Each structure stands twice: as C-alpha cells, then as structure tokens.
Amino acid sequence: MAYPEPNISTPLLEKSSSGSDSETSLTSEELRCCIPKNLTRGLQHKSLAILSGHIGSVSCLALCGEFLLSASHGKDIIAWQQPDLRRFTKFGYGDGSVKALVTIGNRVFSAHQDSRIRVWKVSRSSENIFRLTATLPTTKDYLCKFMKQSNYVRTRRNHRKLWIEHADSISCLAAYGGVIYSGSWDKTLKVWRVADLRCLESIRAHDDAINGLVAHEGLVYSASADGKIKVWEKGRSMHCLKGVLEGRRDVSWNAVIICEEGRLVYGGGSDGRVMGWERDVGRDNWRLVCDVRAHDMAVLCLCSMGDFVCSGSADKSIGVWSRESGGGLWRVGGVIRGHEGPVKCLQASCCSVGEGFMLYSGGLDKSLRVWWVPKENVVGQREWSRQRMIRPREMHDV
After folding, report:
1. Which of 24, 100, 136, 313 could be disulfide-bonded to 16 (CB atoms 3.0-4.6 Å)?
2. Structural domain includes residue 147
3. In angstroms, what CA-CA distances link 359 with 89, 272, 342, 353?
4. Is 164 part of a structural domain of the chain?
5. Residues of the domain holding 365
6. Which helix (H) or strand (E) holds 213?
C-alpha cells in the first residue's frame, strides 16, 4: 500500500543544495555543521523539523538503532531514518490503536488498545524490515492454560479471562533484564519473559488505570490514575511491593522516569506538577526532593537526557529542566511551543549535536516535531530563582 510522503518543514534538515537531483542523507557531523555557531550559546531552543504522515494522534516514540519509531492512535507505526529523518517505512496498520513502544535488541514490542502486545522482528536482510512475528499472549500460552478453571479471573465487566490476558487497553511498556512489563487500564501489571514470550506473572497493582512504567535493576515503578507511584521489587519467584510514592490528593500520575541509575524518580501529574524522589539505597526508602509547578495543565509525558528532564503537557508546551545533584529541577531555555495540540510523548536522542541534543515530541495534532536543545544556557540561572521548591519529606511507609 502506498502512503503519501510526509510534509517536512525545516531550515536544517533539508536536502543538499549541491545541484544533484538525488536525495542526500545528512550525517551527524553534517547536521552539527548545519547549526550556526552563534546558536550554541545563549539560545533557548531551535525548531528543526515538523514531520507528518500519521493517520491519528502521535501516541508514543522509541529509538530503534538507526531508526526513530513513532506510533499513533490511527494504528500505524512509522520508522524515520536518522539523522536526516526521512520516512523509511510504515508498518503495523490495522492492528489496533498503538499506545506504547519498547525495543530490545532486534525486536520491537508494541502495546495496543485491543489489549494485545505485538512483536516485530527488525532485519535488514528481509524485504519486510519490520516483520510481525508474534502476538502476546501467544497461542502456546493460551493452550497451556485455557483448560484449567483456576487460570481464569473475573474482570471488571464481570467477564472471565485467563490471567495472562489484559482485560483493557495496554497503556505502557517497560523492559529490563530480559523481561517486558506491561501496564493496563485494567489496573494490572503483567510480566513477560522475552526469551519465550511467556507471561510469568500478573499483579493487581493499582485501584485505577496504570499510565506509566519504568524498570531498572530489579525495581519497577508503576504510575497510576489512583494517585500513587508504586515500587515493585523482583524476588525469586514474583514481584513484591517495596514502596509507595504519593503526591497531592486527587492527582493522577501520567508518567514516571528514573535518573542517575535509579537514584532519582520523577512523576508527572494531572495537576501540572513534576515531583521527584531520591532513593536511599541502604534503607530502601524514598524521600521527596522536588516539587515544581511545571505546566498550567496536566503533565502527559516525561523523558530525560543526562542532567536534563523534559516534560510535555496538555497545555501544548514542552518544559526543559536542568537537574541538580540533590534532585531539584529548574527551568532552562524557557518554554518550547509549537504543537497545536497536547504533547503526548517525548524522546531524547543520545547523540550530541553541537553543544546540545535532539528532542522529539509527538502531539495530538498528529505531528512529530524535532527540536535542538542547548545543554548550557544562562537563561536557566535566572529562571531558577523563580521556581518554588519545597523541602524533602519522607514518603509514606508501606
């Protein structure tokens, strides 16, 4: 099936003007040279590109080797070739609205509104670069469990399903240590082994929908609309509750990320605030170290890059925050605006360009936007004095 070429509007990611009619891909070094030297100091940010081509709102982003993957509520996934960000291929059409993406090695896992996880194999040797190889739960997993009545659980719609099945839309994915974690609006957290794609565990994790997941070194953080970020520790046979991080009353958590090798945890809430906790490894508890009013409306997504944290909001803006050693955040470079709808997802590239980094944002306006963000900016020092911080407090004991 042929798709129309995406509209690309950018002063920096355009074709070479060498006079050749053939398209020329920009290397990272060429892209670095495209950014004027006077932009590397004192600039807040720079818009590099606006990419379109999705059928629906852009819902999630992920990096997969040389590709940037973007998925939408329109059931499609687009692979963009880095660094020039030309569209390489589109796949996944017709498999249910895509809610989350995660990559492990040469495989891409996509979570869908139809409560299934699809597994795509990435291979340059195949004509179909992204090839669907499995759907979770697998048929083998079904056959091993469907005959035994004790494997069935009652769902909120008073239906019975196997415990390996999600009963509602899968909203988030996380991967670590050969395991995939999936969070759903059915309030459960499921654990899948990558080696054989088998569901190992189902946890009744929250009292409301799970909106965000992150995993690192045996700990899994699940953010929920019930106002709690729960910490789960991987034991010998199953995960157990290790801690609970709570914000203000009646606030839904929409996103969660970790920084500093798991020492710092940040959550984005429906009240427009970003809160952060520092983990005391020796005592296995978390204390609040950051509470900032980040946006006028709900924070929908978070991502980190080195000492920076980026937040996307329903107010159509992106905030860029510098992180101090104690976990506090202060705004740098002002607010990034450009989306015509809420910012639903963010992804930062680990490749440095000049004295900054690339930031990708997807919105409900169906566009994928590319930004260059400087790593040093004196504007941030002035903004810091205007940010109201609160003193750390111990989290609630479990």
Report:
1. 24
2. yes
3. 21, 21, 16, 11
4. yes
5. 38-384
6. strand 210-216
Going by C-beta distance under 8 Å and a sequence separation of 6 or more, which residues neighbour residue 131?
Answer: 120, 121, 123
CB proximity list for 147: less than 8 A, separation 6 or greater: none
> Residue 166 corresponds to which amino acid?
H
State how beta strands 299-305 and 285-293 pair: unpaired
Query: Which H/E stretch holds residue 170?
Result: strand 170-176
Q: Which of 181, 260, 171 minimizes the C-alpha distance to 218?
A: 181
Cβ proximity of 286 and 280 under 8 Å: yes
144-153, 259-268, 388-397: lowest mean pLDDT where? 388-397
Calculate the CA 137 to chain-centre distance.
23
Specify the higher pLDDT residue, 44 or 326. 326
Q: Is 14 helix (H, G, I), strand (E, B) or coil?
A: coil
* Res 270 pLDDT > 70: yes
* Cα distance between residue 171 and residue 225, in whole Å: 12
Peptide bond into 6 cis (omega under 30): no
H or E element, residue 142? helix 139-145
Nearest residue to 121 (alpha-carbon basis) of 112, 110, 113: 110
Give me the CATH number covering residue 219.
2.130.10.10
How far apart CA 143 and CA 122 sit, in angstroms, is 28
**Close Cβ partners of 194 (under 8 Å, ≥ 6 residues apart):** 104, 107, 175, 178, 179, 180
Q: How many domains does the chain contain in total?
A: 1
Q: Kindly give the pairing relationship between strand 117-122 and strand 130-136.
A: antiparallel
Q: Give φ, ψ of 243 to 5 degrees.
A: -170, 165
* Residue 114, Cβ density class (10 Å: 0-12 exposed, 13-18 middle, ≥19 buried): middle
Residue 395 covered by a domain: no
Cβ-contact 290, 276 below 8 angstroms: yes
Percent of the chain's residues with pLDDT above 90: 66
239 neighbors 228 (Cβ within 8 angstroms): no
pTM for the complete prediction?
0.85
Q: Report the run of H or E that residue 89 belongs to, with start and end.
A: strand 86-91
**Is 11 inside any structural domain?**
no
C-beta separation of 271 from 258 below 8 A: no
* Own/partner pairs, 33-40, CB within 8 angstroms, 24+ separation: 35/353, 35/354, 35/356, 35/372, 39/354, 39/372, 39/374, 40/354, 40/355, 40/356, 40/374
Residues ≥6 apart with Cβ < 8 Å to 325:
none
